[in-house]
Amino acid sequence: MDGVTRATFCSRNAHKARELERLLPGWSLQTLDVEGWPDEAGETYVENARAKARFGRQHGDPGTWMIGEDSGIEVEALDGRPGLHSARYAPEGAPAIARLLRELDGVPDRRARFVSELVALSPAGEEVAGTGILEGRIAAEPHGSGGFGYDPVFVPDGEERTVAELGDEWKQRHSHRARAARALLAALGAALALVAAGCGGDPKTANHVLAAFFAGGPRARQLGKVFPHKTGSVPCVLEPGGPATVKPLQATCSTDVSLVKPDRAVVTLTEAWNHGAQAHTWFFFIRRSGVVESVVQEGAAAPQARR
Ligand code: ITT
Predict the structure, then answer these.
(1) Which range has the worst mean pLDDT, 1-15, 70-84, 114-128, 159-173?
(2) Which residue has better confidence, 87 or 212?
(3) Does 70 participate in catalysis according to the annotation?
(4) Interval between CA 149 and ligand 1 midpoint (Å)
(5) Which of 70, 108, 137, 192 is most buried, judged by most C-beta within 10 A?
(6) Residue whose C-alpha is closest to residue 148's, from 10, 12, 15
(7) Looking at ligand 1, which atom is closest to the CA of residue 19?
(8) Ligand 1 centre distance from Cα of residue 187 (Å)
(9) 5-191: CATH architecture
(10) Nearest Cα residue to 295 out of 170, 179, 154, 144
(11) Residue with CA nearest ligand 1 atom 25
């Protein structure tokens, strides 16, 4: 199919499916309408996401990618609960929010994070993964009508309103799921480029890796739009995608490639902008064969890039 990747989203959560559909441009997503889903018995998000994708592989269209997603909200004062068990904490929506607010009644430390893990299995069985994290805090009471789940009580760092108030457009750019989807696309693009580039320890190699990465095909080009920097030009200017009144941002990029084992490397790409006031880091965990095992995005949300 012309530049379109066919995939099956192995989830029963229609909210997640709607969000993901918009987060993977160039992909045609179908859902998996079957019975007998396995329990979420994994000890990590990635294990649960993989189990959903594998269940899809057993029961779904063999010609499509299978995508599983596992997500949750981790509350600092509750030692990371409900975390992996977020869907089973209480029925989604008002009941789960009521329980969370009850548990946090009178607790001053409101810090929390959303985590999303996406695992995609190709028709041939290769696996790629992407992680996205959104840091924030739990509000005193629910506000807003956008999003789903815990969105009415989650205020992201740097914001004063809940995700449900910030709305679906905001979520599409900044949510933990948006970050995981970009990480997944990056993993798919990076795999191609790194086969050619190999791994090394010096900045020249890192820049070579990234230059190849950005030029490496439709998915890498999509990522290039999110990171419109010329590698090696430090600092560089990000053109704002917002209204003409938005000033260009000064960004400084640094890259590093380190071997963690003879056959494994981690490529770190950090952007700091507005004179280091905010920073954003991507970690690519890569095998020498070029297979990207996983990608993690952390830090402040990337500013709007030119589209
Ligand atoms: P599947 O397992 O079928 O994909 P699920 O809803 O059970 O659907 P999870 O096991 O990943 O999905 O549970 C994640 C729960 O965490 C979800 O039910 C919500 O309550 C919460 N959650 C995840 N992402 C969220 C988001 O973007 N906004 C608000 N709450 C979210």
Answers:
(1) 1-15
(2) 87
(3) yes
(4) 7
(5) 70
(6) 15
(7) 27
(8) 23
(9) Alpha-Beta Complex (3.90)
(10) 179
(11) 149
Catalogue the long-range contacts made by 271-277 (C-beta closer than 8 Å, 24 or more residues apart).
271/227, 271/229, 271/302, 273/238, 273/249, 273/303, 274/249, 274/250, 275/250, 276/252
Instruction: Go through the chain and tell me how many residues it has.
Output: 307
The ligand 1 atom nearest the CA atom of 37: 3
Q: pLDDT digits over 83-95, tens only?
A: 999 999 999 999 9
Ligand 1 binding pocket mutation candidate from 40, 55, 67, 71 (most atoms within 8 A of CB) = 71
Which atom of ligand 1 lies closest to the CA of 13? 8
147 Cβ closer than 6 Å to some ligand 1 atom = yes
Q: For residue 106, name the pLDDT band (cuts at 50, 70, 90).
A: very high
Taking the C-alpha atoms of residue 168 and residue 141, their distance in angstroms, rounded to an integer, is: 20
Give the pLDDT confidence score for residue 306 in this predicted structure. Answer: 37
Closest ligand 1 atom to 70 CA = 11
Check 39, 70, 105, 202 and give the catalytic one. Answer: 70
On the question of pLDDT at 133 being above 70, the answer is yes
pLDDT band for position 25 (cuts 50, 70, 90): confident
Distance 138 CA to ligand 1 centre (A): 17
Asked whether 64 lines ligand 1 (CB < 6 A), one says: no
Nearest-angstrom CA–CA distance, 279 and 253 = 10
**Exposure pattern of 248-273 as b/e (b: 16+ CB <10 Å)?**
ebebbbebebeeeeeeebbbebbbbb
Show me where the domains of the chain are located. Answer: 5-191, 203-298
